[in-house]
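Submission sheet (multi-component)
Chains listed below:
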Amino acid sequence: MISWPNLVSQLFNGLALGALLALISSGLTIIYGTLGVLNLAHGAMFMIGGYAGFVTYQYTESFILAVIAGSLFVMLLGVLMERAIIRHFYHRPHEDQLLVTFGLGICFVELVRLVFSSQSQIVPPPALFQGITNLGFMFYPTYRLAVVGIVAIALGALFIVLYRTRLGMIVRAGIEDSVMVDSLGINVYRVFMIVFGIGAMAAGFAGIVNAPVVSLTPGIGDDILVQTFVVVVIGGVGSFPGAILGGLIAGEIISVTSMFNPGYAYVMLFAAMTLVLVVRPHGLLGVQGRE
Amino acid sequence: MLKQRPLLIETLTAVGLIVAPFVLPHLGFAPNTVNRILVWGLFGLGFDILFGFTGLLSFGQSAFYGTGGFVAAYLLTRAGFSNVLGALVFGMIAAAATGYLIGLIALRRTGIYFAMITVAIAEVFFFVEFNPLSDFTGGENGLPGVPTPSFNLGFTTIHFTNGWSLYQFIALCYFIGVIIALRIVRSPVGAIFSAIRDNPLRATAVGHNIHSYKLTAFVIAAAYAGFAGGLLGVLQAFMPPDAFTFDTSGQLVMQTAIGGRGTLFGPLVGATVWLFLQDFLQSALGLGAAWKLVLGVVFVLLVCFLRGGIVGGLIDLYGLVSGKRARKASETEEAEVEPPLQAPPAPMQAKEVAHPAYSGPILKATGLTKRYGGLVANSDIDFSVNQGELRGIIGPNGAGKSTFFKMLTCEIAPTSGQIVFEGRDITGLKVTDVCQLGLTKSYQVNQLFTGLTVRQNLTIAALAELRGKFRLDLFRTLAGVKGLTEQVEHTLALVNLTRRADTPVSALAYGEKRRLEIGLALATSPRLLLLDEPLAGMSPRERIETVRLLKSIARGRTMIIIDHDMDSLFELVERVTVLQEGRVLVSGTPEEIKTNAAVQEAYLGGVHGEIAA
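Outcome: structure written.
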């Protein structure tokens, strides 16, 4: 039952899923690393990105516009959320931050359910990437290949922002020690707002890019959130390279296991996480001392 | 005020449960709804011990709820087991055992890591139930046909069928659950749970093995969840697979936060609000699917503005009202009474020496070095303190004094070198074990249990000494711990906080907090006490008081004191060691140090430091 083309195509699926997870997890991990807040509404951001893109597509029939509008909408939502609520929680215990973001996530999901109902919605892939590509030894959906490319570009952009700009330098310094950054005369709270926006945008972008692969439902972000947690635990909280590595590992584990029995995908993912926790409690690329 | 009436809560719970079937139908509650509320409430009792008391927020309780439920339901429907109560207990044990194994993994990390790991684990259980184990669990169909309990008493058989009849059984289970939970939170273990929630670092430092206590709380929560899961199957005559979903965990968390964490009854209140609103919004207001959005908004608002939830809010309100009354009554008397100048109490005895024959130096460090990458904080320190000695350590800022202390108490591991305490090599031990051996320190920056009262703070420290680093006396009362009251009272008197015993730490003045900081270290009865800048930030008057305190506790005890206040320090100690740039510069009597040229150089010359006095 296991044929080589089947295995290779699952590896490609794993790559596509892994790339998406890497992007979403990067958003989660830079928010946590900089602000110290674990955003449990991150899955909802992913979902809203998909729906915002869906609405844009309904009106414009342009996939590119859908991607742009979806990402920007989620970024604005993230900034708004940070300004209105999250910033009041910086000095409250972690549990309160978890509770409030968890509650916000539920509000977002239920709001979308109210507007769009639980019925699944479909966004077709852009015309350029429709159909199937012949890779020589097998056929593979073109759009899934494109997803890998699109997400790689997005990750590259995020990398440039984080590692080649002034803002990125502040963000990385903030991950190390936000009190120090603050005392250097940099307004960390403004940086926090921007980071929250960028982190949310990463999830929203992934949401709309992923929309043509699966159909949209209000609950689509829940599973993704759980997978993102595993990615972050494997890669190490606060580490951008860790999120990418963890994402790819998680994506491949899910895809390859699903080939044998989808029921065991999570079990294997969990086993990998446990292994990492036992061998390297701070994650593969995590830094010691961050809780 | 609740202390005088120890069974008040139990009695009120019993009365409430007995009265409920007569009152609630008039308020529009169907018996089935009430039963569901009780199951959620029971589920929440364990969760509140984990979250509200121990401070561990798990989003994965569905794993144990489902495990307990399906084990019980499987026994009753497929395995030919007929004793319902027995099956529920088996389910509970299975859930507790699962909780133990999962806890071993999840508790490797704390904070948000813990939350993320529990979510992931619960998700695994959900998928395992649906796929690999679907032969046992019925997969997405669940397990139908769970019987209701009946008891053969010989002369008659009591059968709890449904509705208010089944209510009697579930209410009894809930009541027993409440009694057990109350015992647990009032036990020494319960006190340590709150210490872990408040300040895990200090709970470790005073000598508690907090990992084991956290695991205990986790297993307790799993056991409650397992039993409640079993009851869900009995209640519905069907074990639904959605017990395993993330929504179950999420609903539990939300209900607990809505009702009030750390109150035990919060989850019950939360469940009542939840199920009532669900019915009310859906049917009465015709909101349909929007009910969950309304609940979500209510939840977010509560988290933002009413941290203690509904029950917490009521308690605060009650405290405000009764506190005002009490203050009015006491104001008149208290204004006249000057604090009596009490005679200093006898010094507290240090812990018995484990091996009295030993007579060498109490502490001996050789070649102690700590490097942080390229930065050398301590370099090749040789240091020895004799039994009963009072040693001072001074040095300019950045000389490595605090790092040195942290190595001595094993908070951080030295890069190289050896530490010997009473002839025993303690290098590489954990801070908890070192404290249990009789060596502890008070911190430069206060590390108190800020949410608790002064008495509770000292109780937690004294418990570590009286009970060892881990003990599972879940059903013992605090009053039942031999010698605890005496030790706490004595420490209170020693640090002159008897009048403030029942004040929350957050309401103490700075000087009082500093004294409590010393008291926490003292309550563990150390033979060697390290004090890291005990006088820092104190007013001149407070300094004089604290110096007097330090003198009184020094009898029968070895102490090492770091401070920048040279005058006070030189008055206190017999010998002084001067550290500079991570090395021992010189050691000698205060007189020798005062006139030593190298010391003067260190403070005023070579290094651009200054005497912070």
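Remark: Chain A has eleven helices and two strands.
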